[in-house]
């Protein structure tokens, strides 16, 4: 069993910087190599900043690194499937940033490759590993609020107009739903499972991406989820999980929450706090490290079956809302 896990990162943007920062807070793990497709200088600067001994100016070159244990993919959405398949071909375990890929077809190819190459693969849905979310799951399992009947969740901020960058660029997989709507969508799957009914509507911007998408989900047990994401206004970015005898407030930003409050019947509200000094990516890193040390090919908390459900839900929402990516769909 290998104790020290040596990581590589493909892509050196902002999300990679946060990941590298949190990786430094994880015991028995280190950043070992980085690769940029734009320039060796960018890769070297990133490597120096985060103490990685190897840096490359192409993604293919990173596989020359000795003793590389895992790769985190931090590239734009449109490249996730391609980059993941490249890593799996070299039998290198992968943690791929969300969304896992652009659609179900791509995700299925990624999973098939992971199984053919007997190699670990996980979507980087960091929310699943945040202690506040785990506590919420525990409280529901303890029947503190009864059966979950309604979820309300939102995620919104004002995005600067930069059409060449990923967020507003359809050629890079931009748009509100895939970038931030994935969080309330995932929350609904986590607490209610897959819906039987889906309604969705989007507002589109001048670059063609969905600037705002709202969706309502219905379930066999008459539960509902009312969810929203927007790049045009700052919302509270919080979540409420309503049960038959109480509810849980996951405070903003709910996907990385540090505080939740339990409202159980007529009892006094109970607050739970989970302070940390990291961004919160360290928890998913620790999960992957543990899986690799135990020889597992996927995470029990974020299994590949959940990624299939999540991308299937996003595909259905896109279809209902008319969100199309030319050349992919």
From TrEMBL:
Pfam families in the record: GFO_IDH_MocA, GFO_IDH_MocA_C3
Q: Which Gene3D superfamilies match?
A: Dihydrodipicolinate Reductase, domain 2, NAD(P)-binding Rossmann-like Domain
Q: Domain GFO/IDH/MocA-like oxidoreductase: where?
A: 134-248
Report domain Gfo/Idh/MocA-like oxidoreductase N-terminal positions: 5-122
Q: Tell me where the signal peptide lies.
A: none
GO MF entries: scyllo-inositol dehydrogenase (NADP+) activity
Record keywords, A-Z: Oxidoreductase
In short, the EC number is 1.1.1.371
Q: Which family does it belong to?
A: Belongs to the Gfo/Idh/MocA family.
Return the protein name: Scyllo-inositol 2-dehydrogenase (NADP(+)) IolU
């Amino acid at each position: 069993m290998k104790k020290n896990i040596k990581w590589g990162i493909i892509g050196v943007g902002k999300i990679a910087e946060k990941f590298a920062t949190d990786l430094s807070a994880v015991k028995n793990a280190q950043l070992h190599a980085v690769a940029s497709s734009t320039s060796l200088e960018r890769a070297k600067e990133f490597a120096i900043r985060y103490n990685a001994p190897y840096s490359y100016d192409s993604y293919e070159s990173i596989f020359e690194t000795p003793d590389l244990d895992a790769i985190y993919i931090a590239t734009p959405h449109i490249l996730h499937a391609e980059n993941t398949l490249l890593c799996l071909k070299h039998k290198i375990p992968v943690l791929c940033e969300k969304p896992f890929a652009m659609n179900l077809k791509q995700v299925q190819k990624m999973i098939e490759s992971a199984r053919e190459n007997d190699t670990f693969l996980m979507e980087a849905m960091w929310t699943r590993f945040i202690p506040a979310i785990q506590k919420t799951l525990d409280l529901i399992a303890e029947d503190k609020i009864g059966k979950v009947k309604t979820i309300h969740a939102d995620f919104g901020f004002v995005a600067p107009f930069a059409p060449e960058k990923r967020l507003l660029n359809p050629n890079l997989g931009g748009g509100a739903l895939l970038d931030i709507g994935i969080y309330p969508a995932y929350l609904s799957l986590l607490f209610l499972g897959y819906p039987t009914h889906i309604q969705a509507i989007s507002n589109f911007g001048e670059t063609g991406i969905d600037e705002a998408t709202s969706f309502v989900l219905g379930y066999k047990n008459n539960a509902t989820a009312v969810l929203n994401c927007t790049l045009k206004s700052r919302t509270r970015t919080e979540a409420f999980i309503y049960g038959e005898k109480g509810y849980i407030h996951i405070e903003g930003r709910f996907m990385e929450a540090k505080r939740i409050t339990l409202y159980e019947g007529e009892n006094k509200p109970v607050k739970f706090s989970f302070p940390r000094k990291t961004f919160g990516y360290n928890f998913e890193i620790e999960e992957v490290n543990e899986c690799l040390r135990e020889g597992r090919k996927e995470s029990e908390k974020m299994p590949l079956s959940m990624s299939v459900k999540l991308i299937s839900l996003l595909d259905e929402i896109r279809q209902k809302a008319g969100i199309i990516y030319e050349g992919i769909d």
